[in-house]
Amino acid sequence: MTTLASLDNVTRSFGAVTAVDDVTLDIREGEMLGLLGPNGAGKTTVISMLQGRRRPTSGTVQIFGGNPVDAANRRLLGSTPQETALPDSLKVGEVIDFVGAHFADRRATAELADEFGVAQFLKRQVGALSGGQKRRLSVALAFVGNPRLVLLDEPTTGLDVDARHSLWATLRAQHERGATIVVTSHYLEEIEALAERVVVMARGRIIADDTLPGILGRVGQRLVRLETHEPDRVAALEGVSRREGEAYFVSDSDAFLVALVRSGIPFHDLTVRGATLEEAFLSLTDAVALDNATLEGAR
Amino acid sequence: MSVASLTLVHARYSLIETLRIPIAVIGSLVFPALALLFFVVPQSAVAGNPEFATQAIISMSVFSVMIGSLFSFGLGIAESREKPWEPYLRTLPAPGITRVLAHILSTGLLGVVSLLPIILIGALFTSAEATPVQILVGFVAVAVSALPFMLLGMAIGYALPMKAAIAVIQVVFFALGFGGGLFLPPQLFPGWLDAASRFLPSRQARDFVIWAVQGGDITPLTWLGLIGWTVVLLALVLVLFRRDEGRRYR
User: Fold this and answer.
1) Nearest C-alpha in B relative to A144
2) Separation in Å, CA of A207 to nearest CA in chain B
3) Cys staple from A219: which of A20, A184, A280, A293, with CB 3.0 to 4.6 Å?
4) Residues in chain B closer than 8 A to A98 (CB atoms)
5) Which residues of B touch A72 (CB under 8 A)?
6) pLDDT tens figures, A163-219
7) Nearest Cα to B152, choosing from B164, B140, B165, B163?
8) Residue B12 burial (C-beta neighbours within 10 Å; 0-12, 13-18, 19+)
9) Mean pLDDT value of segment B12-28
């Protein structure tokens, strides 16, 4: 498969803060790649370096085999702004035409507007649109130039549930038309709905790079809370990945409960809930730290 | 997509955006006209003498275009760098020079429009004299000699955040305006100031336009200086544009 974009040992710091820390990543033709991580994980910095808006402090960033800072290498790149950034006084049709004028092979304005559900607003000024309509227009702009590679940074921020689902359907249709898409999000649900391959970032580093089912198995944890006099025995039961006070992280809560009851350990006040993404990330990061420590120890 | 066609596209949409909020244009039209009304028209020694009055109109035109360039380019760019639309435009396949040229075309065009009230006031209330051809030549000369100020405004806009840009522009426009003989005619300058003044783009612009309208001698320093400032500042703007990564917070 052709590699459309790559980061090679890329580090980017802002003053004393390291936003991206030694990241290596290949984006291959035809992929629908989800970049998942909590706020501040470095996702947006990775995207902005691929867009040529920021340069790496060290390492190499390439798109279509060249430096993204050079405009010529961005001819087949589609992007969308993170916030609703559109110029309020321009009309919807004008914004699409303005962006479209940069591309050799551009989609017709009416057709694109139709796909993204903004066709009825073409003559209206952007300032008159609702937040959700602006977001759909922003995402549509990424596709106006028939791009081979599309970078979507938090594409559904601020949308309600219905609008989010319809935008996801549109994005899947664009992917089927042949676009390679990278989408960042801090919602596991969004990544689940869109991505085939998932890269998880935390604190500027890639902590997991796997297929969607592989990642779901690792971050889809349950959190079991209970009171007991023998917490260490509970933590030692099969399937417990981590203990935090009275909380136990397990991948399969049903199996865990069966094991708990069978063990005969007395307990009370038991509750079970899904671990939040934040908690799941923490256990992933800890696992990475543990692996590294084990490796160090083995040497 | 060629640089020329993309430049026109960027200039066009930037003009549409500005003209949809026309009040923004009025400030740059009124300010120089008022300055002319207050500082030149009441002084009969200047307003009554055709040669001096014409030079005063020219000085005020250069001043008007200079102040318009520094403020609208400097503040416009500093402001847009703080909004997310400008960073988005940078992800499109357009080289930096198209943004720079489009700014010159769109904002520069509005700057030249701000000359109209000055010429009108000059014709009506002073004894300034110029034929239609001379006025036309003057327009072209002012537009050409405004390039260094536009580029200087852009350099300030790309180098500094908005609030710092305001402060720097105020100092720069006052220094250039006074030092270039746009407030007080350079004939009143002491020798050393007159000599130093000839290196300033504002003095060079003034002398260049006066030469274009009234004829007479032009020193090589005037036109070489204008070319030099333009080339150096254009290079500076392109470097700053390439280096720019939007507003940074610490």
Assistant:
1) B92
2) 27
3) A280
4) 9, 13
5) 93, 95
6) 889 899 999 999 998 899 999 988 888 888 899 999 988 889 998 888 888 887 777
7) B165
8) middle
9) 80
Q: Note whether residue B249 is domain-resident.
A: no
Closest-CA distance of chain A to residue B149, Å: 26
Q: Do B94 and A102 touch (CB under 8 A)?
A: yes
Residue in A197, A183, A151, A194 with CA at minimum distance from that of residue A49: A151
Number of domains in chain B: 1
Which domain, by its residues, includes B116? 3-243
Cross-chain Cβ contact B248/A54 below 8 Å: no
Would B250 be classed as within a structural domain?
A: no
Residue A51 to residue B90, Cβ atoms within 8 A: yes
Q: Is residue B248 part of a domain?
A: no
With CA atoms as reference, report the closest residue to B17 among B81, B103, B128.
Answer: B103
- Band of pLDDT at residue A295, cut at 50, 70 and 90: very low
The structure's pTM equals 0.81
User: What string of DSSP letters covers A172-233?
Assistant: HHHHHTT-EEEEEES-HHHHHHH-SEEEEEETTEEEEEEEHHHHHHHH--EEEEEEES-HHH
The distance of Cα A53 from the centroid of its chain, to the nearest Å, equals 19
Structure tokens at A41: 């994980």
Nearest CA in chain B to A97: B9
A103 vs B: CB within 8 A: yes
Q: Which of A230-234, B32-36, B224-228 has the lowest mean pLDDT?
A: B32-36
CB contact under 8 A, B85 and A77: no
B chain contacts of residue A134, beta-carbon cutoff 8 Å: none
Residues in A touching B21 (Cβ below 8 Å): 89
Do the domain assignments include residue B49? yes
With 0-12 / 13-18 / 19 or more C-beta atoms within 10 angstroms meaning exposed / middle / buried, residue B105 is: middle
Contact across the interface for A74 and B87, Cβ inside 8 Å: no
> Tens digit of pLDDT for each residue in B127-171?
888 888 888 888 889 888 999 999 999 999 999 988 899 999 999
Q: Kindly list the structural domains of chain A, giving each domain's residue range(s) and its CATH number in brackets, ordered by start.
A: 3-217 (3.40.50.300), 220-298 (no CATH)
Q: Which pLDDT tens digit goes with each residue over B199-250? A: 999 999 999 998 988 888 888 899 999 999 999 999 999 999 888 876 555 4
